[in-house]
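Hi V.,

You were right to ask for the full record rather than a summary. Here it is.
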Amino acid sequence: MRRGPCLVIIIFLFSAALASPAAPAQDAAMWSAPAFNGGIFVTPVPGAPFSAEVSQEMTQILKDGSAFQRKTTALIARDSEGRIRNERHQVIPASSTQDPALLVIHLYDPTTRTSLLLNPFTHIASQNILTRPPATVPPANWAQTEPANRRLPPNIREEDLGASDIDGIEAHGYRRTLTVSEKASGTGKPVNVVDEYWYSEELHLDLIRKHDDPRTGSQAITVTKLNVNEPPAELFEVPPEYKVVDVTPPEQQGESHNPVRVVH
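Predicted structure:
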């Protein structure tokens, strides 16, 4: 595989999940899907280290027909042991020249199933021991997770787009089109909602992901500065100035008292 200096990854997001920087639903998603930050799912698989910079761009169609554009950036990384780092940054207007503020750092270790959410403002690291291992492919990837011979509703069409080289990395593309009837679309005419992704089996990562709904807009992630060398170990460790608080539910701890415990 060519070690290209830049890999473009486009992944479309649900703008509602990112409308509020501290959306509770997104926090919940980070607990249940350890490698998910609201836009890209980094699978915690060993033997495929990398680090990259993620740029997210969102275009929302408002009620008056105008477009509201926003953006944010983040760092993602995975080491040879399968440990992952994922970040969530503030969503800012697309015209802004400022760097989006860091809101949350997410760390996950698949060997211990330890998931940590680090708050850079309070220096509190909330720790949760998960009962189940995360997926080894992004859960939203229907071609990798659903039976190929399943029956689809008549208003859904799925396409195999074949293989393609994306900046020196082989990926396979898939597209799903949902046709919303003119009665249900609210526009007086049929609407096609299109989702597309390009998946790298080698990296266990989506290299391209798209979502487009003419009624609401589109969302995108672009990953650049991909480095397939081993990332620094400190990216996956809790900094010494953080206090780790265990928030694992009592039934998972085998305890009946308050689940919130200070670890250090």
